[in-house]
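Q: For a teaching handout, I want to show students what a protein-ligand complex looks like in token form. Below are the inputs, and the small molecule is pyridoxal-5'-phosphate. Please produce the holo structure.
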Amino acid sequence: MSKFIGYRCSVCETEYGTDEVTYTCPKDGGNLDVILDYEAIKKLSVDDLILKDEPSLWRYLPLLPVPDPGGKATTLRAAGWTPVFSPAPLAEKLGLRHLYIKDESGNPTASFKDRASAVLMARAREIDAEIVVTASTGNAGAALAGMAAAVGHKAVIFAPKTAPPAKIAQLQIFGAKVLLVDGNYDAAFDLSVQASQEFGWYCRNTGYNPFTAEGKKTAAFEIWEQVIRDQILDIRDSIPNIQYPLSIFVSVGDGNIISGIHKGFKDLLELGLIESMPRIFGVQSTESSAIANAFNAGTEEIKPVSATTRADSISVDMPRDGLRALRAATQTGGAYITVPDDEIIAAIAELGKVGIFAEPAGATSYAGLVKAVNDGLIGPDDPVVVMNTGSGLKDVKAAMQAAGEAPIIEPTLEAVRRLL
Ligand SMILES: *Cc1c(COP(=O)(O)O)cnc(C)c1O
Ligand SMILES: [Zn+2]
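A: Here is the structure, written as tokens, with pyridoxal-5'-phosphate included.
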């Protein structure tokens, strides 16, 4: 009854059966898109496509290439179905009428990566993979370690030794075998692939395992339910002339979140559930801008950079899902935007003022929106969704940089008065 019928290479478009390949295209190393049996899915009514009583990404089980992972009460089942906020003070400040922030910080391990790891662990169970492995700047590892622990599998995580301490602590607490690599994320990535081949571990790596994007695409389904269907269509009904497409802002490192969101909307279009694509905007740090560089040069050839950004989750020399990430913008009328690190830190403080706590990579998307508004890429009537991909508790040093020091006072009313 599985709707998973094969893979298609994003580079050469060769199709493969479900058992023919595991990771990337054997011909050219291209990332593989999962193909679903859309004809079979189309026979389902919308009510059968969405399991409305399920407050997690598993509400979209009929649109996922994995079986129900079982284990009713595990963190695996709690990923996704995150809230959408409309913070009026930020909308006013930017002069926007319809601003939405989808906050991923409430996921079980506090980042967007839980979506990928939940679906990945369901796949690992299906193929009886006992040990799972990933390279990670921290969040992907924490998500995999947490999900693996929840269902009693073992996880091995390769992270750069410079990962923020909170992220490393999470890996340790979830009982993963943690290997801190004396090198950057790219070095950890290459080593984890070698180790997975050598020891036969199932590798979750971003931009390598085709199932991560399938988990990440569920954010697009939620944006469709929570924003397009519940908000934008109402706006359009009340003002019939408005045809502005939704614009979605996503922070980009390897490029798998933005590719996954693009895939989700492609699924919805294929199934006739949306009439047109939203515009997708990728935001990178100027200190880690490999994909934005290609976008600006008008080429699909992505050249490595020497990434130094403070936003560790998007610090990548050679993006592993760069081509699909680029196309998420070029094929939807979106764009790539770069922002310097000081604007990323400022964006943490801005989001904090409306009660949203983001890590640097989580706030990068918002910094990109500020720039897009200033540059006239986004106008007052454009409805916008900004993704906060990770919690500020993941990197408290950056948060303290954004907020400044709190004063220490003598325990007297006099001291309080002096500071008011
Ligand atoms: C991983 C991550 C990103 C970037 O995702 P990519 O798929 O690497 O582009 C952005 N924000 C946070 C918090 C992340 O953990
Ligand atoms: Zn190929």
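A: Two things your students might notice: The chain has a mean pLDDT of 95. Residues 9, 11-12, 14, 25, 27-28, 30 surround zinc ion (ligand 2) (CB under 6 Å).
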